[in-house]
Structure formats: C-alpha cells, structure tokens
Amino acid sequence: MASGEDRKVALLTGITGQINYKFVPIRLFVFMCHVGKSALYSVDNPRNLNFQDGSYLAELLLGKGYEVHGIIRRSSSFNTSRIDHLHTDLYAHKGGKMHLHYGDMTDSSSLVKLINKIKPVEIYNLAAQSHVKVSFDLSEYTAEVDAVGTLRLLDAIRTCGLEKEVKFYQASTSELYGKVAEIPQNEKTPFYPRSPYACAKLYAYWIVVNYREAYSMFACNGILFNHESPRRGETFVTRKITREVAKIHLGLSQFLELGNLDSKRDWGHAKDYVEAMWLMLQQATPEDYVIASGEMHSVREFVLAAFQHVGKEIVWEGSGLDEVGKEKETGIVRVKVNPRYFRPTEVDLLLGDSSKARKKFNWAPKVPFKELVKDMMDSDIALMKKNPLA
Ligand code: NDP
Ligand code: GDR
User: Fold this and answer.
1) pLDDT of residue 78
2) Is there an atom of ligand 2 within 6 Å of 173 CB?
3) Its family (predicted)?
C-alpha cells in the first residue's frame, strides 16, 4: 500500500444520491478512500435514476484522480444490467477507478469489513433516509440510519485503527436550524430541529464533533442548505415541480398538487455543493461549515419560475386549502393544494450565511436560482419527451 501522503482513496456512503446519468442510474452512498488515489462510497437503489450528491461527488473525485469506492444497498428489484454497465463502462469508471460494494448503514460489520479492506483516506458519509416528511412515518428507521448509522461509521474507522489517517465528511443539514432563531443562519446559530429527520441529523452532528474532540479525528460537518439538480429525487419539491410542469407543457398532465406553498428555502445546485465537501477535507484543520447560496425563495416562486420557463403565467386564486394556481391566458387550473403534503411541524424559512467557507477556502456557488430552475426544467422536458411514462 502506498503511504498516506500519496494515496487518494475515497469511500462514499450514499453514492446513489443525485448520481450522474452517464454514470448509470445508481444512487451512491459514499465512504471515501484513496489508494494512490481511491475512494469508497455506497450505492443503493441501482434501479433509480435520481442520485444526487453521491454521483456528483464521485465524478468530482474521479476527475481529481481518486480511486472511488461506493457502498450500495441490496434491493429486491436490483437492476443488474445497470450495475453491469457501471462495472464495465470504462468511461464511467475512469479506467477502473470506481468500485461498488454492498453495505448498509445499519450493518456495522459490513462497514468495518469495507473500511479494513479499502483503507480509505477520505470518507464521505452521504447515506441517509433523507426525506423530511417520510421521517415522521419512519422515525425509528430514520434515527437508525441517519443518527446511529453515523456513529457506526465513526466507530468502524476506530475499530480499523484508522482514526488518525482518515478524513471524515458528515452530510449535516440546514434542517438542524428548524424553527429559526435568527436570519441568516451561520455556524453559530442555535439548532431547533423540527422533524425526526432533523433530530437524527442533530445526533449525527454532535457525535462528529465529539469524536473530533475525543479522538482528534479529522471530522467535519458540512451544514448544507437545500441543493437540487436534474438528479434530485422525484419526491422533493423542486423535482416534483419540474417533472410535473414538464408533463403539463407536453400535454401529458393537467395540474400538480403541492403542500405548503409559502415555505422558503435557500436553494443551490448540487454540483457546486459537492465541491465544498471536498474542500472541507483539504483544509489544515477539521471544522464545520455552512454551505448556502444566500438567496431565499418560496415554493410558490419556484412554481412560477418553472411555468415561466415553458411560457405559462400562473395567477393565484382563493386561499388555504382552496387556493389554486390558474394559467393566466386560459384560466385552466394548474396547481392545487393537497393537505397530504403538509408536515406535522414545518420549517418555515431557511437562509444560509456561508461567509466562513467563502473566506476560508474561497467557495462560492456558481449557479443562480433562475439557472437552476432552467437546468432542471430542460432536463425533465427532455426526459418526458424520451419517455412519457417516466
Ligand atoms: P438522497 O436521498 O438522494 O440519497 C441518499 C443516499 O443514501 C442514497 O444513495 C440512499 O440509497 C442511501 N441510503 C439510504 N439508506 C441507507 C442505508 N441504510 N445504508 C446505506 N445507504 C443508504 O440524498 P442527497 O443525495 O440529496 O443527499 C445526500 C446527503 O446529504 C443525505 O445524507 C442528506 O440527508 C444530506 N443533505 C442533503 C441536502 C440536499 O438538499 N440534497 C441538504 C443537506 C443535507 P438508496 O438509493 O438505496 O435509497
Ligand atoms: P426539505 O425538502 O424538507 O427542505 O429537505 P423538500 O423539497 O421535501 O421540501 C421543501 C419545502 O417544500 C414544501 N412542500 C413540499 N415538499 C415536498 N417534498 N412535496 C410537496 O408536494 C411539497 N409542497 C410543499 C415542504 O413542506 C418544505 O417546506 C431537503 C432534503 O434534501 C433534506 O434531506 C435536506 O437535509 C434538506 O433539504 C436541507
């Protein structure tokens, strides 16, 4: 094995999150490591085309010469042809530098075995049950994966005796701020989680801080605000909107149903945000950083921008559950409110202040809001044209 200095091996959990299509439809959970340059990550749900952060991060690392290892979950509907493609496509693998392994955040022994075998120098923990609304239904499972899973991974590093070698990235979240105490939110803003998901991520945040202090581990929390892309999961609000508006534009659907139109988010592009993950692990000392665009928009504004992209102007009528969005020109109802999408406790607004990251490692988002909407709309229109049943 090459010395720690020359190795570039990354292990990624959550590698099937927002993955690249050309990479193959796989969600990656990534642990990261690097031999000569290698990384390990975990990929789940190979059947699914929407793999966000893991896919973009894997691309970035492969481009930097890493050996990337991704962890994937076993699924009953495993699509072997897609996995075969992932394993055989030299372009996707950049000359065989990408490797997929079965593992799971709920299975300590799989984590220990993989870390011991791969000996990564960087580990990116992106794996999570990441849907806020679903976490109210699957609260125990969410804690198992998002909270205890993070502890398992940190302990697996220690079990392998690699706590002084490995740099660890934790996918923390703006959801930690929840019921916000101040605007904008930075690294010093107090947390007030508002969902089982956010509570689980709060545990993960603090266990990362604790292991950093207790065992001098190089472990960082990236407190990332919402980031989206054409690879975003279909049940998150931005992608749900762009998919449905694309269908309406092509005459494949009449309207879309949403929950709270007034919640506000700080939305950026996932591609920009994975770069910040990597940059955090290249600093001299391990610290926690907010990553955000610094711009806030409501769900309602996202809807308007998506329709505007296909030349439709929406006007709002009524209020509460009776509110609808009508196409100005024709009067056709295009948006309805459905209470099934409301959450028991909502996060009303999030706006990040990422000046620490901007100062410390010169990070800045490149894709503004309008361009993000355009990227997602163009991609979904192309997707629906190719496969109207997608
Ligand atoms: P996704 O939901 O798209 O991806 C989550 C990944 O975790 C998938 O690959 C999923 O695999 C995997 N996973 C879920 N459960 C397990 C498990 N038990 N064992 C192993 N892997 C598992 O999320 P994103 O890519 O959008 O986000 C990546 C991470 O960043 C998540 O931790 C999320 O909570 C966090 N985050 C995301 C933000 C965002 O705006 N996107 C903002 C802040 C934080 P499978 O495909 O099999 O389900
Ligand atoms: P969020 O993202 O909860 O911020 O978590 P999501 O896109 O699910 O919701 C954003 C806001 O939109 C409102 N909303 C709807 N949401 C969904 N999913 N579906 C709807 O129909 C709908 N209508 C309105 C929501 O109530 C909410 O206010 C995401 C995830 O990626 C987390 O893992 C991550 O930690 C945070 O972003 C930062």
Assistant:
1) 52
2) yes
3) Belongs to the NAD(P)-dependent epimerase/dehydratase family. GDP-mannose 4,6-dehydratase subfamily.
Distance 235 CA to ligand 1 centre (A): 13
Query: Tokens 């559950």 appear where?
Result: 321
The Cα–Cα gap between 95 and 264 comes to: 43
Does ipTM surpass 0.95 in this model?
yes
Which of 183, 370, 334 has the alpha carbon at shortest distance from 264?
183
Rounded CA separation 223/241 (Å): 25
Residue whose CA is closest, atom 34 of ligand 1? 130
Contact yes or no for 31/54 (Cβ under 8 A): no
pLDDT digits 0-9 by tens, 45-93? 333 333 578 888 988 998 899 999 989 888 776 533 333 434 455 445 5
Q: How far apart are CA 238 and CA 45, in angstroms?
A: 21
Q: Which token pair is 256?
A: 């879309």
| Spatial CA neighbour of 268 closest among 11, 21, 18 | 18
Q: Any idea how long the chain is?
A: 390
List the alpha helices (DSSP H) in 216-318: 237-249, 270-281, 299-309
Residue 52: the pLDDT is 72
Helix ranges, 77-229 (H): 80-88, 90-93, 108-118, 132-137, 139-142, 149-159, 196-215
pTM score of the predicted model: 0.92
What's the average model confidence in pLDDT over 216-229? 98
Place of tokens 């101040």: 182
For residue 193, whether the previous peptide bond is cis, meaning omega lies within 30 degrees of 0, is no
CA–CA separation, 153 and 110 (whole Å): 10
Structural domains in the chain, CATH included, are: 9-230+267-296 (3.40.50.720), 237-264+298-346+369-386 (3.90.25.10)
The residue to mutate among 237, 255, 265, 373, having the most atoms of ligand 2 within 8 angstroms of its beta carbon, is 237
CA angle (315 as vertex; 314, 320 as ends), nearest 5? 115
Stretch 101-107: mean pLDDT: 95
